[in-house]
Amino acid sequence: MNSIGETQLKIIKGVLIVNSILGLISFFLVKPPMPFLTGLLFGTIISLLNFRLLSLTMKKAVEMQPHQAQVYATTRYMIRYFIIGMVLYISIKAEYIHVLGTVLGIITLKFVILKKELFNNKQYFKNIFKRKEAK
Questions:
Q1: What is the C-alpha separation between 111 and 17, in angstroms, rounded?
Q2: pLDDT 10s digits, 32-70
Q3: Any transmembrane segments, and where (predicted)?
Q4: Which among 55, 76, 71 has a CA at the least distance from the CA of 9?
């Protein structure tokens, strides 16, 4: 498997692990837990599908001319935001889906990416806290 595919797989596994932990915690904190779990599952599935759509969009846009790629990426971006909007609308209207669970399912992907790509980079933090030398 190529490097991009391995990275995607690690991120997907991370999202599933974090959301499984959130699901277990919700049994103790949320009463009744089923609407929250349904929302968490709904948000997680949509988030992972959007992540996959982003990957496919970028693979295709890289092979296009710059202007075509910009138009293509922008339209796909709007489609992904429309999908997220519809998911949130559905979770607000449906009584059997908890909105907070849906939102957590959607944003967990972003936290996993930040943790994997930013917070694991020790050089990044060394550069932040390094004193600037006088010239």
A1: 12
A2: 889 999 999 999 999 999 999 999 999 999 999 999 999
A3: 12-30, 36-57, 69-90, 96-114
A4: 55
| Cβ atoms 15, 108 nearer than 8 A | yes
C-alpha Rg value of the chain to the nearest Å: 19
Reading the block at residue 62, the tokens are 């890289």
CA-CA distance, 23 to 68, in Å (whole number)?
A: 42
Helix (H, G, I), strand (E, B) or coil at 125: helix
pTM of the model: 0.81
DSSP helix/strand/coil, 114: helix
Please give the Cα distance from 49 to 106 (Å, whole number).
10
Using CA atoms, how far residue 32 sits from 40, 62, 87, 95, 98, in Å, is 14, 46, 21, 12, 10
